[in-house]
Structures are given as C-alpha cells and as structure tokens.
Design goal:
This protein is α/β, with parallel strands linked by helices and 409 residues long. The chain has 14 helices and 17 strands. Helix 3 links the parallel strand 4 and strand 5.
Amino acid sequence: MKCRHCQSGRMRPFLDLGTAPPSNSYVRAEDLAAPDTWYPLVIRVCDDCLLVQTEDFAARETFFSENYAYFSSFSSSWLAHAKTYVADMVQRFELGIDARVVEIAANDGYLLQFVKERGIACLGVEPTASTAAAAREKGLEIREEFFGLALAESLAAEGWSADLMAANNVLAHVPDINDFVAGFAHLLKPEGVATFEFPHLLNMVSEAQFDTAYHEHYSYLSLLAVERILAGNGLTVFDVETTPWHGGSLRVFACRTDHAAHQTTDRVPALLKREEEAGMRDPAFYAGFQAEAQRVRNAFLEFLIDCQREGLSVAAYGAAAKGNTLLNFAGVKRDLLSFAVDKNPAKQGMYLPGSRIPILSEEALKTQKPQRVVILPWNLQSEIKQQLSYIADWGGMFVTAIPRLTVHA
C-alpha cells in the first residue's frame, strides 16, 4: 500500500475493523436471501505526510451508487448550520448577485437552496442519482458527476469559475485526493475562496469515534495533513474554524496559491500548534486507537447482552453509516437489537447492511415502546433526544456507546 497523497510506502497501522459491508448499502426486503458483499476495513497512517487513510479494495462507484440513501436535509440542525454558513460567507466575502457559488457534494440541495434564495447563481456537483434528483426538485442546477480536475476544466470553460466553492463532508470521501483538490485550484477565480469542512482526526482519536470509519471515508484528516495536501495542489490555507458537527469538525478556508488574495489569520498556526502539542506528529498518537475501538465494542456488546438477560427491549434510532460500523464490528444482530427507526422514507422498509436489522418509521417506537433506544448518530443526540422525548412516558431511556457506554434520560 502507498499513500494516496505522497505515494510513500511507509505506512503504519491505525485501525483494523475486520470486514464490513458498505455502510450506506441498505438491503431491500426482496434481496434478503442474497448475501452482503463485505470488504476489509483497514486504516493506516502515512509516516511521511500524516494522512490517515483506508486501504482500498473496491471502486468508489461501489459505495456511491445510484441508490445512495444519505440525505442531508433530514437533520433540522444541519439545515440550520448550512443556512448560517451561507449567510456568513455572503457577508464575509461580500458575495452579491453577480457572484458564482459551486458546491461539491451538493447532496439533496440542503445548502445551495439558501444560496438560490439570495438570487446568487449556484451550481451543485453530486454524483449520486438519488440525492441529485432531490436537489433538482428544489430548482437547483446539478451536475451528476464525480468532481476532479477534468470536470473543473469543463466547468471553467462553461463560465462557472467560482467566487466561493463549498465542500462539506466530502474531502474525506475521495480516493484521489490530489486530483480532487487540484480541481478547486482550477475552478476558483483569482480571489475566490474554497471551504472544506470535515471531521477532525484529533477528536476522532480523543473521543474514541472509531465508528466514523467506513469505506466511504477514504481519509481521516488533521490540519497538519490537509495543509500539506492543499499546498501540493495549488491552494493555501488562510483560515480555520472549529465546529461541533460530527463530533467536532474543522472548516478550512483556502485560496489559490498563485494569487494569495487572502491574509492568513492567527488561527492557522494556533491550530497547527494544538495538533502538534497533542502529539499528532508522533507515531504513539495513532498506536492506541485499536484498543479504544475494542473497548467501546466490548462495552456495547456487554450492555446489549445484559439487556437481553434482564428482559429489556432495545431498539435504535438512526440508520446511520456510523451505526452500521458499530453494529457490524460488534457482531450485533436482531436478537440483541430488534429494529431501527429513521426519518428518511428512502431507508424505511429496508434492512441495515450486515446486521439485517429492519428499518422502520418512527411510529414503531410509539407502538412497540422499547425500554432502551440506542442513538446511533450520537453526533445528533441533542436533536434526537428532544424529538423523542416522549419515550419517557413508558420509562424508556436513551443509550449512546461513544465515547463510552452511557444510559440517560
């Protein structure tokens, strides 16, 4: 295995979750007799550039298919986050109606709808047919392709050179990270800005967030690694912010290196120093993560077995990709967790990959009244606990497994 950024062969272990099916490949009822396809889920860190990355065993089309079932708009808090982002970027970079905004991985139009509302020309790039169709229903222009340098060149030739490019939770999702970033450098206007938002590797390690590892996530990112990757492909990091999303994320601001139109803020060196002080340049930082994943797995499995012994019924909320990582690593099946519920109609009536646990509508909670509800998308637990507060009516309690097993009202 060679590093997907610097091509170094000096790779060391970070996390080995055995094998798992693609986390967003939900199973239809008519396909239950057919086997899941499981791929090794092995993650390593490059000693030279510090990029943490998967060892690849399948093409990206395997994981980002036409039936891709993750729709961003089903989280009200994420929608609010997107609306605030648009308002902040319009104000900070003085984007008027003559500006052009391009979002990479536009999903179902959760963000660009707020750009369109302001009368600003916008374009979304989204390779999955299911979410692209949902975005078009919002009146948005979508290119149903994977982004890279070749598409950037085509879009620039069409007049889509951008004042702002947004890339939320996609930098980790690309197998050829160099080609992907080079596309931004080509499509940005000389004074344009690109923002990349992604889960912070520092939080992943410090909070035992091993369930954010799945096949769609090719890279697990620190600012130390991202700054180098961007610099190697024509972009300069000039600012960085932290956000609470997905267990703690970074939002990196970048501009074209050949114009350096934006002055670097003090936040960039401050965060780099924070990562270095946390030991992220030291191999020891990465060495203990396997044991943390096993600790979380064991505690979760012991909890479910104890519930079974005590006659407590257990269900899950959120047919989330991270939840599938946890369930499959722990070997959980329907005998320990009877069903999962999800707001997304595209997932209802399907089955979780690997565990084959049925996905139902929220109404199932009210009719079956499970005594414990495991929140699989723990990053949204505040929103979910408020939404499902009624489980207290029958003495139900919530459960989260990460960073440690917790049962709470």
